[in-house]
Amino acid sequence: MPEPLLPPIPPYTKQHLPTERVTIPMVFPVINPTRWRSSYNEDWGSHRHTGCDLIAPKLSPVVAPFAGVLGFKPQTFWIVREDGWGCLGTHLNDDTPGTNDNKAHLDFMFAPNLVPGERVREGQLIGYVGDSGDADGPHLHFELHGPEGMRDPAPSLKVARRLRAPLPLLPPEPNRLEGCVRRFAAKTRRLTVLPLTEPRYKTLVLSETALAQLGGEAGLAALERSRVVSLTVEKQRVERATLVPAGARSATESGQPLVRLSGSSLSPDATLTRCATAELAQFTKLSSPRWIRTGSMALGPLRMRGTKLKQAAILGLSGAPASLFSQEVVQEALRYSGFTRFGGAVGSGRIILILADG
Ligand SMILES: [Zn+2]
143 alpha carbon to ligand 1 midpoint, in Å? Predict the structure, then answer.
């Protein structure tokens, strides 16, 4: 199980909040037309406002502004990056669609595939705009937290990249639907799924082939609620189905080998490059106090699944420029560690370089 991640706690105070300006590259966290103004640090009587309120129609999709480790509880989510920057959003939807009942199932508050403590990708669906808690109307209250405390999210929001829709897990294809299974009636082979794109259950009939591809009735019964299935649908009938691997990356984030280094006097090792590509998808944070951290990079042991090599790795943390990983840096790392082989991959704003013995 991933470790639980505690939410950043905004100060409830009449004192001024920190006003140092920062711009964190991000995707705008709400899809759909949004009205907002800079209201961080405004005096609201009993306290100062700790974020910006992004006003949007109820049930507008909320997406991860950047990649990081996710935590959530009813109404609220938070995402923390490896470098200590994080965000928090609240007032997610708690109404059954079409009502104002404050009693919605969590399926209408959060994306169905979220697991607390797991890594989310930039642009991934997190949940839906609502008016839960003490909100006057539907909006996302959005906060930015840094390693040294809160900051105004407005400068980052002003230049944030706008998406037209949450990013899918797999490259989009016509007639393909990604969702999580909610019910299966074996007699009629009717499958109820919650798509990753909208808070509305869909009922489809599984073909024999698709049912077998999902492991039959037993496979469906054992399926975790957060596990994503990819369904190819023709006329309300699922013709083909696959289980999306847990931790699948979005199409825009797949790892790229460090090609710049091939052809130089140093040639990357294919096995280690494959390991590095896999690590990009799974690595969430510096897992050991034995890591040495310098600026935007860290050096330390990296335990990897399925290998028995004694290894060290240099990890480019989020925001590290790719130019850091020149031939000179690789040479330096090999010299420093005493290892002779290396492989690496770039993606998701990170660079992983793995070093190993011959
Ligand atoms: Zn607010």
Answer: 8
